């Protein structure tokens, strides 16, 4: 997909070894973005970004994402106060996936369930789930008005 906010690489060598950030968005104009805790490297959440949310994130230093269900931009933590302050953004060799190293403001809840991470369950070999973090840092009902 052609994008006007970011340059288009001239070659595979430019993508893999060049010095210019040229993110490769998918056909829907999105790029996957994994947020991790900058201090611990713990996974916090996964979302998508479009060129506008990525540009805003780079400009402001606060994580902005694109909601596929709402079809709109969203500034992470705008409602809850759990803003994600970006320390570093990494891209993979193909520049088609991002990892955001962030510090979460407020009480440190990255998940809408009130937990520190959206990755609070572990998948067992028998396909059952085990909750590995049941500590809620914020009350989701009080914060968002719903569970």
CATH class: Alpha Beta
CATH architecture: Roll
- Into how many domains do the coordinates divide? 1
Strand element count: 8
Q: What does the largest sheet look like?
A: 4 strands, mixed
Helix content: 10-25%
Which segments are poorly predicted (pLDDT under 50) over 5 or more consecutive residues?
Answer: none
In the sheet with the most strands, the strands line up as 2-1-6-5
Please count the helical segments.
Answer: 3
SSE topology string:
HEEHEEEEEEH
State the distance separating the first and last CA atoms: 36 Å
Blueprint (SSEs and pairs):
Elements: H1 12-17, E1 31-37, E2 43-49, H2 51-60, E3 64-67, E4 72-75, E5 84-91, E6 98-104, E7 121-123, E8 129-131, H3 140-144
Short description:
14% of the residues lie in helices and 29% in strands. The protein has 147 residues and is of the alpha+beta class.
Give the key terms.
alpha+beta; Ubiquitin-like (UB roll); 3 helices; four-stranded mixed beta sheet; two-stranded antiparallel sheet; about 150 residues
What would you note in describing this structure?
By secondary structure, the chain is of the alpha+beta class. It has one domain: Roll (Ubiquitin-like (UB roll)), CATH 3.10.20. 14% of the residues lie in helices and 29% in strands. It has three helices and eight strands. The strands form three sheets. It has a four-stranded mixed sheet. It has a two-stranded antiparallel ribbon with strand order 3-4. A hairpin with a 4-residue loop joins strand 3 and strand 4. The radius of gyration is 17 Å and the shape is globular.
């Amino acid at each position: 997909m052609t994008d006007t906010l970011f340059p288009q690489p001239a070659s595979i060598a430019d993508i893999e070894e060049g010095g210019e950030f040229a993110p490769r968005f998918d056909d829907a104009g999105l790029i996957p973005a994994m947020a991790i805790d900058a201090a611990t490297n713990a996974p916090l959440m996964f979302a998508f970004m479009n060129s506008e949310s990525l540009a805003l994130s780079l400009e402001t230093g606060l994580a902005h994402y694109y909601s596929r269900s709402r079809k709109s931009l969203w500034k992470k933590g705008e409602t809850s106060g759990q803003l994600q302050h970006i320390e570093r953004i990494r891209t993979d060799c193909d520049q088609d996936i991002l990892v955001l190293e962030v510090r979460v403001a407020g009480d440190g809840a990255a998940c809408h369930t009130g937990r520190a991470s959206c990755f609070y369950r572990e998948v067992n070999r028998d396909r059952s789930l085990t909750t590995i973090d049941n500590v809620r840092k914020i009350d989701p009902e009080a914060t968002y008005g719903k569970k």
